[in-house]
Write a structure and sequence with these properties.
By secondary structure, this protein is mainly α. The chain is about 75% helix and about 5% strand.
C-alpha cells in the first residue's frame, strides 16, 4: 500500500514537471521574457511581458515579502511640453517675420513716394532699387555672410520668365505710385487674387470651389468703389496697378512651374531674381526715360530738397530689397496660406500708414470700398485653403 501511494505521487510529480516544461517552452516561444536576477539569492526568474513597449512594474510573485524585492519601471517621455514650446517659438518667429516685413514695406513706400514726388522717373528708381539689391547680395556672398547658391544654366533658364514678369510688375507698380496716392495703388493691388483666378481658370483650365469665385465679388466691387470715389484718380496710375497685378500673377505661375526641385533658399532666390531683372530692365529704362532726363531731373531735385534727396533715393532702394528679402525668407518658414494672409494684412498696414503720413484725403465711401476689397482678399485666402 505504501509503495503504491509513493509510486502514484512520483507519477504525478513527473507529469506536472513535463506539463510545466512544455507550458514554459510554449510561453517562451510566443511571449517575450524579461530576466530578473535577485542578488541576495542569486536566482534568475523569467517573467513574461505581454506589452514590451511599456513596462510599469515587475514584481516577484514567488516571495512572501509585502514589498517587492525586484522592481523595474520604464516610462515614455512626455513630449507635450516640448512640442508646446516649439509651437510657441514658431509663432513668435512668424510674428517677427511679419512685423519686419510690414515695417520695411511701409518705409519703402514712404521714401519711394517722396522720391517720385520730386523726381518722377519710375523706370530709373526701379533700376536703382534692383541694382542696390544685387550689390548688397554680392557683398554678402563675397564676405561669406550668406552662402552663395549652387546654380547652373538650367536654373537661369527657368528663372528668366519669372524675372520678366517680376520686372514688368515692379515697374508698373512704381509708375502707379508716381501718379496716384500710395493708398490707392495698394487698394487696386489688393485685387490681385481676382486676376489670379481669371488667368488660372481661362488660360490654364484650373477650377476652384464656389467659395473662391464668391470671394471675388467683394474684391472686384471694393476696388471699383474705391476707384470711382478716388479724389486724385489718374488713369495711368490705375492701369499701372492693374498691369502690376497681372504681371505678378504670371510671375507666381512661372515660379511654381520653373523652380520645382531646386534647393535655393528664399533670400538667394530673390537675389538671383533681382540680378536677372536688372539686366532686363536697364536697357528699357534708358530707352524710355534717357540719361539726359535723369541728369536734369536729378539736379532739379537736389536743388529743391537738398542733399537729403540722396538719402531718400538710397533709403527707398535699400528698404525695397530688405522688404522683399524678408518676404521670400518667410516663404521658407510658413505656408502659402499664411503668407497670403500676411500679405493681405500688410496692405491694411501700408494703406493706413500712408494716409496718416501723407495726409491723403479719403472720403467715407472710398474707405468703405478699400475695406470691402481687403475683406474679399482675406476671404479669398480662406476659401482657397
Amino acid at each position: 500500500m505504501s509503495f503504491s501511494i509513493k509510486q502514484s505521487a512520483l507519477t504525478m510529480d513527473v507529469s506536472n514537471s513535463v506539463v510545466h516544461k512544455r507550458f514554459s517552452s510554449i510561453r517562451s516561444s510566443f511571449s517575450p521574457c524579461l530576466k530578473v536576477q535577485n542578488n541576495s539569492t542569486n536566482k534568475i526568474t523569467l517573467v513574461s511581458v505581454s506589452r514590451p513597449l511599456h513596462i510599469s512594474s515587475v514584481e516577484s510573485c514567488f516571495r512572501r515579502e509585502e514589498k517587492p524585492v525586484v522592481r523595474c519601471e520604464a516610462y515614455e517621455s512626455d513630449k507635450s511640453s516640448s512640442e508646446a514650446k516649439s509651437e510657441r517659438a514658431q509663432q513668435v518667429k512668424i510674428g517677427i517675420y511679419f512685423a519686419t516685413w510690414w515695417a520695411f514695406n511701409v518705409v519703402f513706400n514712404i521714401y519711394n513716394k517722396k522720391v517720385l514726388n520730386v523726381y518722377p522717373f519710375p523706370w530709373l528708381t526701379s533700376t536703382l532699387s534692383l541694382a542696390c539689391g544685387s550689390f548688397m547680395m554680392m557683398v554678402l556672398w563675397v564676405t561669406r555672410i550668406a552662402e552663395p547658391p549652387k546654380i547652373d544654366i538650367e536654373f537661369w533658364k527657368a528663372l528668366f520668365p519669372v524675372a520678366v514678369a517680376h520686372t514688368i510688375g515692379y515697374v508698373a507698380a512704381t509708375v502707379s505710385l508716381s501718379k496716384v496716392a500710395v493708398s490707392f495703388t495698394h487698394i487696386i493691388k489688393s485685387g490681385e487674387p481676382a486676376f489670379s483666378v481669371i488667368v488660372l481658370r481661362f488660360l490654364l483650365g484650373d477650377t476652384f470651389p464656389p467659395a473662391v469665385y464668391l470671394s471675388l465679388i467683394p474684391i472686384i466691387g471694393g476696388c471699383a468703389l474705391a476707384a470711382l470715389t478716388e479724389l486724385k484718380f489718374n488713369m495711368t496710375g490705375f492701369m499701372g496697378a492693374m498691369i502690376s497685378n497681372l504681371a505678378f500673377v504670371f510671375r507666381n505661375i512661372f515660379s511654381k512651374k520653373g523652380m520645382k526641385g531646386t534647393s535655393v533658399s528664399g533670400m538667394n532666390y530673390y537675389a538671383c531674381l533681382s540680378m536677372l531683372s536688372l539686366l532686363i530692365l536697364t536697357p528699357f529704362a534708358i530707352a524710355v526715360e534717357g540719361v539726359h532726363m535723369w541728369v536734369a531731373g536729378w539736379k532739379e531735385a537736389v536743388s529743391l530738397i537738398g542733399p537729403q534727396f540722396i538719402w531718400w533715393v538710397v533709403a527707398q532702394s535699400i528698404f525695397y530689397n530688405l522688404d522683399n528679402q524678408v518676404a521670400y525668407m518667410s516663404l521658407d518658414e510658413i505656408s502659402p496660406l499664411t503668407f497670403s494672409i500676411g500679405n493681405t494684412l500688410k496692405r491694411i498696414f501700408v494703406i493706413v500708414s500712408s494716409i496718416i503720413i501723407f495726409h491723403t484725403p479719403v472720403q467715407p465711401i472710398n474707405a468703405l470700398g478699400a475695406a470691402i476689397a481687403i475683406l474679399g482678399t482675406f476671404l479669398y485666402s480662406q476659401a482657397k485653403a
